[in-house]
Predict the 3D structure of the following.
Amino acid sequence: MHVLILGGTTEGRRLAELLDGNGTPGLRVTSSLAGRVAGPRLPVGEVRVGGFGGVAGLTEWLRTHHVDVLIDATHPFAETISFHAAEAAAEAHVPLLALRRPGWVPEAGDKWHMVDSLPEAARLLPCLGRRIFLTTGRMGLAAFAGPESDGLWFLTRSVDPPEPGTPTPARTELLLDRGPFSLEGERELLRSHRIDVLVTKDSGGAATAPKLTAAREAGIPVVIVRRPPVPEGVRVVTDPQEAARAVREL
């Protein structure tokens, strides 16, 4: 059996470990990374890096490499590849499973403002504060470069710097860092930069959750972008162990 994991997440790496150590004769695991992050954390086993060339390219790869199970363990906001995976799996008649960590749940004291997109988040900011901690990644910076951001200051955190020529807010300090982040570190960051609004995506997981706790403690409002939907009809599991069991069942 050949399992292809569309990875790049902690859950994808953990699933590769579970399957690689499963000891099942004839089980082959390949992890695919998009290649958008410099120096990614590589999973165990076979790894390929780069895109497939759309639905047609992924379909051909599934067929050529005799993939028996496709697992979409990409980031919850990697909407394009998730829909490509659904179409390609259907075309190649390969079972598809989506591995998605649970989203965050508000607690008492949280001041969350849920929005459906980055542009909606940008429009909301002037009503909430002036010094913004932006943790939505380098790919969406252009959404905060419009006139609605005039007069706002941004601390932008991402793993890699934005591509040259990417529109960014006029007043921006770039912080290159990779989680997991500590609660004490997030508290100090909010304090030292005098942050009064946090912007994030509902990516879920523990690695970046301390910023939510720090914001709650400081009474800071948080703008959270909702996740895009998983393609209709795709089975969803929430942890690598459940995904590994599903593979064994297949």
Notes: The chain has a mean pLDDT of 93. DSSP finds seven helices and twelve strands in the chain.
